[in-house]
């Protein structure tokens, strides 16, 4: 050993490295105790409540646990200085103080099993690591106790009866005293003509100013009844104003800004109590829908816009109710025979070529063989009120009695189409999201639409035969794994609840949806594109 220290080029063959000694600093009965830790040194020996001195024969290390007392720390520093001077050491030897969690690499080499290799997953992005941390295993363990899948086990919301829907509609319309409708034309809102009330265009924005008056309840015993003329101020106090802003799915957000900085300010100057409700296409509230008494028509395009080809195109409208008669809409769909369904009713508007009148057309009211009688009566009424005119020839057709010359030609020829809509009795849409900080599954209402498919999340759609896992364009890998497990759990649960209807799991991507998926959505079309 001496020869090696004196500069000998070779280490003697009988040289052995003396193992370092680890002492634990403790307070005894009026004096310090310095017991030596026995056995091989490992990381588990270091307790966070203690202070240790590691004598490596040259360097000396004082290790402070995070929960150790200040008195023991101060005593350990002085004791380390005494211990350092008791044995001969090299001039470069040092006394190093270390806090738990800030150990140097030299200190760690004296302990067995102190792993310093950092696991790196090069397949993950920086955003993913920032959200969940580098250790996915520990993050997954935390998530196990923070998941909410209760929506998968709740029964499906029952459909509202026709009597209940009529009662609600009558109550809401009884409170409605007046409603003024406006539509955005250019940069200004203009009054909507009465004959266009209930007709919406997907590229336009509409404003409805509603005045509600709640009648005062009379005293049961007839006491305190004032038979004098009602005070105008008192009547104004009992009235409330609600503004509904309706935005089509193709309409830009500029309409909302125009309303906020223009028409809304004028309304607030005239109305004492004003509530503003912003709603989007096919996401309307039941109360708003009730004011149109099931005459709710959604057309593609923009109001008063001339067709690009110079001649009007063929239009096909589908009448459907989702979960309630209040949610009845007549939505324009692609004019193709494959979009027909024997369980629904349709209106086909076929413009006549070569006619002097641009509005001349043949309007077919198509009644499916399995459609409801109430829907058949309703669509005839809508056709008479909203589509009929002196230049229009209207015909009511039952399924199977269609003329070939105009009807099927307008729909690009005969094609196979669905003969039932039994899936409407089973459709459920779930949203899988991690926005709350943990994984949750929530169910959309039965009146869901295409725009409920969120790009940031994953959706689970059940149509009674298949369960679809729909992946948004910006969903995370963790959400995909958890949603896949959730879909499997849901299928097993439904196998117990409905053994006669076994489900199969399918995966679908945005813009790659099949007909089995899209038929569950009323008025399916192209997905909305964010502004570039």
From TrEMBL:
Keyword Lipid biosynthesis assigned: no
GO annotation (BP), single: actin filament severing
GO MF entries: actin filament binding; phosphatidylinositol-4,5-bisphosphate binding
CDD domains reported for this sequence: gelsolin_S3_like, gelsolin_S5_like, gelsolin_S6_like
Domain of life, per lineage: Eukaryota
Keywords: Repeat
Pfam families for the chain: Gelsolin (PF00626)
Keyword field contains Translocase: no
SUPFAM superfamilies for this protein: Actin depolymerizing proteins
InterPro entries xref list: ADF-H/Gelsolin-like_dom_sf, Gelsolin-like_dom, Villin/Gelsolin
One GO CC annotation: nucleus
Domain Gelsolin-like: 40-107, 442-498
Record's protein name: Jg6920 protein
